Q: What sequence folds into this?
C-alpha cells in the first residue's frame, strides 16, 4: 500500500529523484537531502507506515529488514568500526517531519550525546 501524497512513497515509486544507495524487495535507502553528518542515509519500507506508533506485530520482520539494511549500508560506507547512529524520530517532540517511517543512518563524525 502506498500513499500518493507521501514524499517517501513518491521517492520509492521513482516519482521524485533521490540518491538511492540500496534497495531490496521491502526497503529503499537513499541519501538525506540535508545531511547532518558526512554519511546520512534514510532507510524506508516500500510500504507506507506513518510512524512507529502505527507499527503492528505483523511488521516485525519488516522492522528487522530496515535494521539489516542499515547494517549493510554502514559497512558499505566504511562506518562499521568507527561507529554510527541509527535513529527513528517519532512524533512532534522528536522532530519527525515525514510521516513515513525512516531509519536515519548517521556516521562519519563523532556524534554527541544526549541529542538536542
Ligand atoms: P525526520 O525529521 O526524522 O522526519 O527526517 C526526515 C528527513 O527527510 C530529514 O532529515 C530531511 O532532510 C529528509 N528529506 C526531506 N525531503 C527529502 C528528499 N526529497 N530526499 C531525501 N531526504 C529528504
A:
Amino acid at each position: 500500500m502506498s500513499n500518493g501524497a507521501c514524499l517517501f512513497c513518491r521517492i520509492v515509486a521513482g516519482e521524485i529523484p533521490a540518491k538511492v544507495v540500496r534497495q531490496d524487495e521491502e526497503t529503499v535507502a537513499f541519501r538525506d537531502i540535508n545531511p547532518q553528518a558526512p554519511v546520512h542515509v534514510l532507510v524506508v519500507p516500500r510500504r507506507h507506515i506513518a510512524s512507529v506508533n502505527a507499527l503492528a506485530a505483523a511488521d516485525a520482520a519488516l522492522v528487522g529488514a530496515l535494521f539489516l539494511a542499515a547494517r549493510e549500508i554502514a559497512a558499505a560506507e566504511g562506518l562499521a568500526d568507527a561507529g554510527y547512529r541509527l535513529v527513528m524520530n517519532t512524533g512532534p517532540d522528536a522532530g519527525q517531519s515525514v510521516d513515513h517511517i525512516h531509519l536515519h543512518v548517521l556516521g562519519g563524525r563523532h556524534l554527541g550525546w544526549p541529542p538536542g
